[in-house]
Amino acid sequence: MYQHNRFTTNNFNFFSKLANFDYVLMACILLLGVISLATMYSTDGGKILFHTKSHFTKLIVFTIMMLIFSFINIKFWYSIGYFFYIIIIGLLIWTYLFGIKSSGSQRWIDLYFINLQPSELMKICIILCLAKYFHRMKLENVNSLYAILSSLIIILLPMGLVIVQPDLGTSLLISISGLAVLWFAGINHKYFIYTMIGFLISLPFIISFLKPYQKLRVLTFLNPDRDPLGAGYQIIQSKIAVGSGGIFGKGFLKGTQSYLEFLPEKHTDFIFTLFSEEFGFIGSVFLLLIYAIIIYRIVAIGAQSRSYFAKLFCYSFAASIFVYITINMSMVLGLLPIVGSPLPIMSYGGSSMLATMIGFGIVMSAKVHNQQSIA
Amino acid sequence: MINSSSDNVKKLNSINRRMFITGSVKFFIMIGLISRLFFLQVKENKKYLTLSDKNRIREWKLAPVRGEFHDYFGNVIAGNFEAYQLHIIPEQVEDFRYVIYRIKDLLELSDKEFKRIIKKKNEIKSWETLIVSDNLSWKKFSKINNHLYDLNGVKPVISISRNYPFGSNFTHVIGYVSQANEQDIENNEVIKKNFVPGLKIGKVGLEKSFEKQLIGSNDIERYEVNAYGRRISQLEFQKGEKGKSLRLTVDTKVQQLSNELLKDQAGSICVMDIYTGEVIAMHSSPSFDPNLFVFGISQDDWQIIRNDPMKPLVNKTLQGNYSPGSTIKPIVALSALENGIINTNFTVNCRGHKHPLELYGQTYHCWKKEGHGFVNLRNAMKQSCDNYFYEIARKLGVDRLSETAKKFGLGKEVFGNLFNIEKKGLIPNTQWKKNALGQSWVLGETVITGIGQGYIQTTPIQLCLMTAQIANGGYKIYPKIVIDDENKVSPIDKFTPLYKNSKNIKIVQDAMFASTNEVRGTSYKSRIDDPKYQFAGKTGTAQVKKITERDRELDLKTFQIPYEERDHALYIAYGPYKNPRYAVSILVEHGGNGSTTAAPMAKKLFKTIIDRHQLRESINNKKYLDI
């Protein structure tokens, strides 16, 4: 009882919240921010130009936002789970109807002061929503047909809305985030195995339904040299950049591949290539280490959390972040076909960073309020 | 509450178990990513570093500096000069239209040239160099320089280009250079290797034959470029090597004199050292200015050269197959002596046009209407009596004659494969006729071969070599024109005797002396009495057209005959007679008569050649002193 009292009273104490703050995670996020800024500075050719400025602003704004979020009780995040999901679904429909068309896809909505990509927000939102859904459910009900069907609908609805944009990469990432929650919620592992087998068997059929440019990407992945100046250009140049970096890299601002504009999309999906070229194997492993610490801290926060919701969210979010990183790196290292997937925090792109920062904010909130139980 | 908490415990167990599985999977994937990074960045680093350099580094080759040609005394006869050029890099020009019109005014460009420049500009990338003018006069170049303040992005450039200071004098020896075309690049490995746009290569003559040595190697600039090929920065400048300079055996003064002598006439003059085989002068007239070709010849100039009836493009010395006429007589006489057909006392009665030699219904006339009377070898050679040579040729037979002629260098290329244009000439024999024409040799053909008519054809350089080898006492020499030609192996049979009995050579030499230096000799008028310059020679008048009875009756003077039907005038000589050193062969196309047209040229030539002999020797001696 005494303990209970102590925690309830501490709930509103700002300084004890601050003491409960996860400084390791915070430090890693800030370090990542600094690295990403430096890299962005390099993509701008060693000058402070548009991308650097814009990235810096976003970093500041979203970090502050994250800090604010971390002081909001985890209960609040639990309570808005469904609401947030519905809002984003609404935004996705809005995107489908009135979105901004650019280079053959319709992914953005115009919010007057900012162009938002709701599909990115869906990546975090779906975790929140499903975590809430399974928080209340008893373990024996988790594998019921009703639970599985309704959670699948929760996943498939945004997936469908993102696929029609069309944005296969993001929709896959959304589904992976959702499936991560399902996995941690305790859905029978047989289902995952069956789904995997079913997916592999139907892969040829899925490929036949892909759009021509997507097919080309798959073919290019299987053999990048089939069209080295066309479809294979990105992956070949990316591998050259990474490979030529060597152990210690070419040095900051000295990456010839990026500086001389051989690298495509170096601000966004291929930012790791530039980083890796300039800082080499050592730098790349260091970056991976920071990501590993971040993921480890998120998992640790989940483990310390008292509420099942917080645990489920943290674990799933960590898994998602891990998958984003893995897919992005595998893509630029030539291990996977090219699917549009940004590297969290590092890549240029407001929506992606916003989603990641919201995730970090909720995780931090779970840490600060780790003794908070949710009924 | 207990129920729910037990459920909570189960849920926590489940989630923690799965977190453990997930954590392990993450760990292994992380290891996988790191090993992939290790593979790319450490293990395959070299491969990708090379690829990255290939991406970013591009080489620009600059035209190599061509080796020069020097004459025997070290004077530059084909050198390099600084060509003033005007380059524009379009992207560096703010207002291209304004600048280009300004240049048009300053350089007084014609509309045609202007259009060509505009067309070229549209073909290249905006950061590539546009060559507005490749050879400006100093006046225009300085004019541009004065207006540079007004012409942003315009670059006056000084570039190295070929120059022939003696103009048309050496054209048929060294040839000329011009822009390499696709065929040149394909056929020549060295050109391919050193090729840059605008590279000038030898098209004919020694410029072509010695391309390998002359061309040199490119300057190489290495630039860092971006993905679009734009130069970002210069990484390296590798200086190329200048091509090897070649020293020729030619004496510019003698060459110039040859040019003067043959001015306005078509023909050839060769001068050769009879011991070393060094070619002192080799000229084919008319010539043309090789400087015209360096930057591409204009259509008008080209038409003038091409349509000249005297055919300046033909190198008459090497390419011209002519009937040797009477200049073959020393060889006919020598052959007859060598084969024991005649001795110095053998005489023939030449009875003039009324009593020509008759064989199977064909008649063979001596050139002299009145006839020469009884002539022996010395007199026959001196007066060039045709009847005498008909007779000894008939006795000798064409096969034995051709053997001697070939021994003395007729019927094959004098310079081997040095000049690819050189013709072989033709020394006929019975076998040849059977093979080439499928007919048997006729005696009448032997007879006319004896006076250098019929099938027999020689080039002026062959006649010169023949004369040289008679003059040096009958020893084989190998003519050369390039000193220290590294490709050439010195032949083993140099200076091997070509005679059976050296007395026979002496007899022929003496007869040639008589021809020039004794009264009634055919070139007596051109003699020099001073023993220092005294020379011995043989005239020749080669018929272009068969002389008909009508012609014989008319007996027209040379100027009365149409140009194309006039005889070729020839003269071969060597001197000084007492201590011979130089051989000369002269041919004047349609020049009429050897003794009136060709022989007087020899007189002037010998004066100069022998005057310069001392100087030539001193150069040779100096070579040893310098060591």
Please specify the SSE layout and strand pairing:
The complex is a heterodimer of chains A (375) and B (627).
Chain A: H1 2-10, H2 14-20, H3 23-43, H4 50-71, H5 74-79, H6 81-98, E1 100-102, E2 105-110, E3 115-116, H7 118-135, H8 139-142, H9 145-163, H10 168-185, H11 189-209, H12 212-222, H13 233-245, H14 256-259, H15 271-304, H16 308-332, H17 350-368
Antiparallel strand pairs in A: 1-2, 2-3
Chain B: H1 2-43, H2 45-56, E1 57-62, E2 69-70, E3 76-88, H3 96-107, H4 111-123, E4 130-136, H5 138-146, E5 154-163, H6 171-174, E6 177-179, H7 182-187, H8 189-194, E7 200-202, H9 205-209, H10 211-214, E8 219-225, E9 231-238, E10 246-248, H11 252-261, E11 267-273, E12 279-285, H12 291-294, H13 299-307, H14 316-319, H15 329-338, E13 348-350, E14 357-359, E15 362-364, E16 373-375, H16 377-383, H17 386-396, H18 398-407, H19 430-437, H20 443-449, H21 460-471, E17 482-483, H22 502-517, E18 536-542, H23 549-554, E19 568-575, E20 582-588, H24 594-611, H25 613-625
Parallel strand pairs in B: 2-10
Antiparallel strand pairs in B: 1-8, 2-3, 3-4, 3-5, 6-7, 8-9, 10-17, 11-12, 11-20, 13-16, 14-15, 18-19, 19-20
Helix pairs in contact in B: 11-24, 15-17, 15-18, 15-22, 16-22, 17-20
**In terms of quaternary structure, what is this?**
heterodimer
Q: Beta-strand percentage of chain B? A: 15-25%
Quickly count the helices of chain B.
25
Radius of gyration of chain A: 21 Å
Major sheet attributes of chain A: 3 strands, antiparallel
- Give the count of structural domains of chain B: 3
Structural class of chain A: mainly alpha
Detailed description of the structure:
Chain A has 375 residues and is mostly helical. Chain A contains 17 helices and three strands. In chain A, a hairpin with a 4-residue loop joins strand 2 (105-110) and strand 3. In chain A, helix 7 runs antiparallel to helix 16 and helix 16 packs antiparallel against helix 17 (350-368). Chain A is globular, with a radius of gyration of 21 Å. Chain B is 41% helix and 18% strand. Chain B contains 25 helices and 20 strands. In chain B, strand 19 and strand 20 form a beta hairpin. The A-B interface holds A 138-139, 183-186, 237, 239-247, 256-257, 259-262, 276, 280-281, 284-285, 288, 292, 295, 299, 302-303, 308, 311-312, 315, 319, 322, 326, 329-330, 333, 335 and B 7-8, 10-12, 14-16, 18-19, 22-23, 26, 29-30, 33-34, 36-38, 40-42, 44-45, 47-49, 51-53, 55-56, 224-228, 232.
